[in-house]
Specification:
Layout: H1 2-33, E1 37-41, H2 56-91, E2 93-94, H3 100-104, E3 112-115, E4 122-125, E5 131-135, H4 136-141, H5 144-159, H6 162-175, H7 181-205, H8 209-220, E6 230-231, H9 235-245, H10 256-274, E7 278-283, E8 288-293, H11 297-304, H12 318-321, E9 325-330
Parallel strand pairs: 1-8, 3-5
Antiparallel strand pairs: 1-9, 2-3, 4-5, 4-6, 7-8
Length: 333
C-alpha cells in the first residue's frame, strides 16, 4: 500500500505542478496578446536591433490556443467515453450463477458484473466506486479457477485504487501533450500494477498455473482495450507480465525522442516562468502601444523615452534599424 500511495502522490504532484506552471504562464503573458501593437526593447542584447516577424506573438498565441483546445477536447471525450462505457456496462449486465460460489469467498460478489458482449474483456472500472466487469465471452472461455484468478487480479486493482490513479495519469497525458514522457511513465506504471496484480492472484491461489493459462488464452484471443480502465488483457502489458511470470527481466526503455521533446518543453516552460517581464503602456498622439523589456525598469524607460513615430509596418525596414526596440506584432485599427 505504501508503494501505491507513493505513485498516487507522484501523479498528483505532477498534475498540480504542471497545471500551476501553465496557468501562471497564461496569466503572465496573456495581456500582451490583447494589445494592438507590442514592442520588444532590445537593450538586453547590447547591440544593434534584432527584427522580429510582426506576427510572432499572434503565432505563439494561436499555437498555445490550439494545444490547449486539443487537450481540453481530448479530456472531455475521455470523460464522456468513460460515462458512456459505464452506462453500457450497466445496461448489458446479465445474471449468472456460474461464478457465485467461486468468488463469494473473496468478498467482491456485489462488485462483479457479467456483461453480455461478443468481446473478450475483464476490467476494473470506476472512480468513486470501482467495480469488476467481465464479458460473457470471456466467462465462457475460462475455467472456474481461471475466473477466480481474474477476479483476484481485478480485486487487487480495486483495493489499491488503480482506476483513480490511472485517471490522474491519463489526464496529465491529455492536458500536456507537449510532454510525451508522461505517456511513457504512465505505460511503465500500468505494467508495474498489472504485474503486482498477477503476483497477488498467484499468492492467494498458491500457484501460477492459472495466471499462465489466462495470459496464453489472451495472447491467442485479442482483448478489448480501454484507456479508461485497468484490464487483465491489456496488450501493452502482456509481454512484460509473461517475462515476470518466467522470472525474467523485461527491459522497459523510454523512447529517446520523447525524452528529448519533454526535456525541450521543460526548458521552454522553465524559461517562460522565470524570465522577468516588465511592460509599460506608451501613449502618444499617433498610437497606443505596449513596450516590453526583460532587463528591468531602467531598460524600459530608455526605450519609452524615444518617440515612436509610427507603428511597425515593413519587416527589416531601415526606419527601425536605429531604434532600440523591435515590434512583435501590429494589428491595424
Amino acid at each position: 500500500m505504501k508503494n501505491i500511495n507513493k505513485n498516487l502522490l507522484i501523479f498528483s504532484l505532477l498534475f498540480i505542478v504542471f497545471s500551476l506552471s501553465v496557468g501562471r504562464i497564461i496569466v503572465k503573458y496573456f495581456p500582451l496578446f490583447l494589445e494592438h501593437t507590442v514592442y520588444y526593447c532590445q537593450r538586453v542584447f547590447g547591440f544593434s536591433t534584432v527584427e522580429f516577424p510582426h506576427m510572432v506573438s499572434i503565432i505563439l498565441f494561436i499555437t498555445l490556443s490550439a494545444f490547449s483546445g486539443y487537450s481540453l477536447i481530448r479530456f472531455i471525450m475521455y470523460l464522456w467515453h468513460s460515462h458512456q462505457l459505464k452506462q453500457e456496462f450497466k445496461r448489458y449486465a446479465i445474471p449468472t450463477n456460474r461464478m457465485l460460489l467461486s468468488i463469494e469467498k473473496y468478498g467482491v460478489r456485489n462488485r462483479t458484473y457479467i456483461v453480455q458482449s461478443s468481446k473478450t474483456f475483464a476490467f476494473c472500472f470506476g472512480i468513486i466506486k470501482p467495480n469488476i466487469y467481465l464479458s460473457s465471452t470471456l466467462v465462457k472461455q475460462m475455467t472456474k479457477r481461471e475466473l477466480e484468478a481474474i477476479v483476484l487480479h481485478e480485486k487487487y486493482h480495486i483495493e489499491h485504487r488503480d482506476s483513480s490513479i490511472m485517471l490522474i495519469a491519463n489526464t496529465l497525458s491529455f492536458l500536456f501533450p507537449f510532454f510525451p514522457i508522461l505517456n511513457e511513465y504512465t505505460r511503465s506504471y500500468k505494467i508495474q500494477r498489472e504485474i503486482a496484480a498477477d503476483r497477488q492472484a498467484i499468492k492467494t491461489m498458491g500457484t501460477d498455473v492459472f495466471i499462465a493459462t489466462i495470459l496464453k488464452k489472451l495472447l491467442l484471443v485479442p482483448s478489448l482495450q480501454l484507456s479508461t480502465a485497468t484490464s487483465i488483457g491489456d496488450a501493452h502489458t502482456l509481454l512484460p507480465r509473461i517475462y515476470a511470470l518466467a522470472g525474467k527481466h523485461y527491459n522497459n526503455r523510454f523512447s529517446l525522442n520523447k525524452i528529448l521533446i519533454s526535456t525541450a518543453s521543460s526548458v521552454v516552460l522553465t524559461f517562460l516562468l522565470i524570465i522577468p517581464v516588465h511592460a509599460m503602456e506608451v501613449h502618444s498622439h499617433t498610437q497606443d502601444v505596449m513596450m516590453v523589456c526583460l532587463q528591468g525598469q531602467g531598460c524600459l524607460n530608455s526605450c519609452t523615452n524615444i518617440t515612436i513615430a509610427k507603428p511597425y509596418v515593413i519587416p527589416y525596414s531601415t526606419d527601425n534599424v536605429s531604434r532600440p526596440f523591435s515590434p512583435l506584432h501590429k494589428v491595424t485599427y
